[in-house]
């Protein structure tokens, strides 16, 4: 009998698991990939920056996996609403949680709840057309923006806010976000690192991109840059950090620049309060120094005037109803991906929100190996029972063929050189399918 596996989540972790299972040796396997959204590919569609289309090409490989005979896609099916995890575990030999980390961590500073503070999960979701965040409708009527954090997401946010329409022409930035960003009077974006340039998490390709923008200069205070990365790093880290430091030195040598917009890299500064009335008017920060790798407050404070704050300080998983959850670490407790009998975890829900897309591949391979080793041949009915359940509950399942129609409609509606014009609501997608 076939081994029946349900994968909950169709982002990179889910698809790498499906790929590893379908190409693995041993008993026949049938793989059903379930996603609460109509559209597949998780962060590839809704997280990767709209102007980083090359990165999104990995979806082509995932698409080939989706089209394999043994694989089915069940879009618009939410576990916990349309079917419970317990039901899935009864029906499938193995269930793999690949649900990622879709929410924001809080800065935990006073004033964080003011209008004009939007965590990066929400803000990136909004400008990428994620249906959960369409109603965010952020007020961008400000000259200055503070982006908290110096990771790659912070860089994405800063870059998308300062690029010209021409620079975004090859992107899939949805209409609502393109119009709002282009109408905004933003001239200055402050990227705030609570530690120093050596500790910054962004990678060098992304950092260098900030030095090649059409109407925006990177601004770096040379006094904040050490000459070397210092001691205690392994060779690889030292090499990567030295590259970032060299790029920042190069930016610093350019001075303030003469372009219309600026992205300021501000290090050794920790947000302590969001200022203003109902709406954000500024940010109060404490200068820091590094002790034992940690940022420690110096007691010296300063303020930045800004009307928009985007904390980009890392993502957070939330519990899957019916699965255990470690509230402190924000992951599903697991032993190398094994959660419980027949239950596995991969990707950010397994190990936290770090790493590039390809970092999820080993998770998928490990989970597939465990599933085959633990279960051998299967004994549960799988797909047909799920289909019957969803039918009885009148769930409008979006199949992979449906997604291909939505995809084709988006591509056909694009104004070249844009690759697609995203449909952003389920209703608009259903209209394509029902026309
Ligand atoms: P990240 O790389 O962990 O960066 C988070 C940033 O937020 C760090 O600078 C961190 O500082 C700061 N931070 C955390 N808590 C803070 C607080 N309470 N107050 C002030 N600052 C705080 O996370 P990310 O940018 O969300 O990216 C997630 C993963 O996706 C990363 O592995 C990233 O490389 C990857 N990604 C890759 C790309 C790409 O390849 N182009 C694009 C986007 C994302 P500390 O270091 O001091 O904690």
What's the topology here?
Elements: E1 3-8, H1 12-23, E2 29-34, H2 43-46, H3 53-56, H4 58-66, E3 71-74, H5 85-91, E4 94-97, E5 103-104, H6 120-127, E6 144-148, H7 152-162, H8 175-183, E7 188-192, H9 204-209, E8 216-220, H10 235-253, E9 261-266, E10 269-276, E11 280-291, E12 294-305, E13 308-311, E14 315-316, E15 338-340, E16 343-345, H11 348-351, H12 360-375, H13 383-392, H14 400-413, H15 426-434
Helix pairs in contact: 1-4, 1-12
NADP nicotinamide-adenine-dinucleotide phosphate is lined by residues 107, 148-154, 156, 193-195, 199, 201, 203, 206, 270, 312-315, 353-356.
Description of the structure:
The chain has 435 residues and is of the alpha/beta class. The protein has two domains: 3-102 and 317-398, Rossmann fold (3-Layer(aba) Sandwich), CATH 3.40.50; 104-311, FAD/NAD(P)-binding domain, CATH 3.50.50.60. The chain has helices spanning 12-23, 43-46, 53-56, 58-66, 85-91, 120-127, 152-162, 175-183, 204-209, 235-253, 348-351, 360-375, 383-392, 400-413, 426-434, and strands at residues 3-8, 29-34, 71-74, 94-97, 103-104, 144-148, 188-192, 216-220, 261-266, 269-276, 280-291, 294-305, 308-311, 315-316, 338-340, 343-345. Strand 1 (3-8), helix 1 and strand 2 form a beta-alpha-beta unit. 45% of the residues are buried. NADP nicotinamide-adenine-dinucleotide phosphate binds at residues 107, 148-154, 156, 193-195, 199, 201, 203, 206, 270, 312-315, 353-356.
